């Protein structure tokens, strides 16, 4: 029987249920806690977050993967309270959203140091708690290319994944060839990586997405709901129907079993306004109905929201780093 790490302890894979693979309780850049314009009182943030998670539960949602990296508002003790109050399994991550949002303390650390940090948070606990990370977050810094620190983080994540069996979730698919080369050099199969934000309006590349899927990686259509028709939509938004058609094309290529969907929404954004009205529940209230209108069957949603997330999140048997190097 497989297991998945949640903030309240490991659960059997069979308990995962409907899963949102790329979400946030609250994401902000380092220093967001000092913000004055968008700061909310803790009790207000708590109530707003409870409402959204309870609504998620009403839609049948059981597991919420919080992809907030180190230094970006991750608070596992808060996650634990929310999980107990709502009945939603919450999976926390170790790692960084990208090098340019990593706290300065980490910027000169070695690959070995970063590997040990990620392994500790997966096997021992986060921030002095016994809440263990269930995945590793990495990402591409602004500009669309992996910089040197990004590459160190990717290598450390690959080694930590081999040591612990945890999957990797990326922020953005951009510069995928460089990422794939790093994972190959480290001996990590691509079926342990979810390449995120393939539907991001700033970095669309359908040939790239097909390549990732053909090589065995997972492709995240997980900025769903950032629609350019919405007032205040950020620069990575795109027309709602354009995203739907993009996703349908990916399915028509035979890649249903390589795709996941999620909203990358904040329950309560930190240090920025977020997108008004956007939450994980957009999946159930807008996107899935759009797909149903296009003729997509219920078995597709079961694959996207239950079976594929279970394959990604289930912890694999560790592989020693030395074996991975030998196997190159």
Written overview of the protein:
The protein has 328 residues and is α/β, with parallel strands linked by helices. The protein has one domain (3-326): TIM Barrel, CATH 3.20.20. 38% of the residues lie in helices and 14% in strands. It contains ten helices and eleven strands. The protein has helices at residues 42-58, 76-86, 111-123, 148-164, 176-185, 206-214, 240-252, 282-293, 298-313, 321-326; strands at 3-6, 9-12, 18-23, 61-66, 89-91, 93-95, 135-139, 168-171, 193-195, 218-221, 259-261. It has a six-stranded parallel sheet with strand order 6-7-8-9-10-11, with helices on both faces. Strands 3-4-5 form a three-stranded parallel sheet. The chain has a two-stranded antiparallel ribbon with strand order 1-2. Strand 9 (193-195), helix 6 and strand 10 form a beta-alpha-beta unit. Helix 3 crosses helix 4 (148-164). It is globular, with a radius of gyration of 18 Å. The model is unreliable at 324-328 (pLDDT under 50).
Provide keyphrases for this structure:
328 residues; alpha/beta; TIM Barrel; 6-stranded parallel beta sheet; 3-stranded parallel beta sheet; 10 helices; 14% strand
How many β-strands, per DSSP?
A: 11
- Computed structural class: alpha/beta
Oligomer: single chain
- How far is it from the N-terminal to the C-terminal residue, by CA? 30 Å
Supply Rg.
18 Å
Question: What is CATH's topology name?
Answer: TIM Barrel
User: Any idea of the CATH class?
Assistant: Alpha Beta
Largest pleated sheet:
6 strands, parallel
The percent range for helix content is 25-40%
CATH superfamily: Metal-dependent hydrolases
Shape: globular
In DSSP terms, counting alpha (H) and pi (I) runs of 4 or more, how many helices?
10
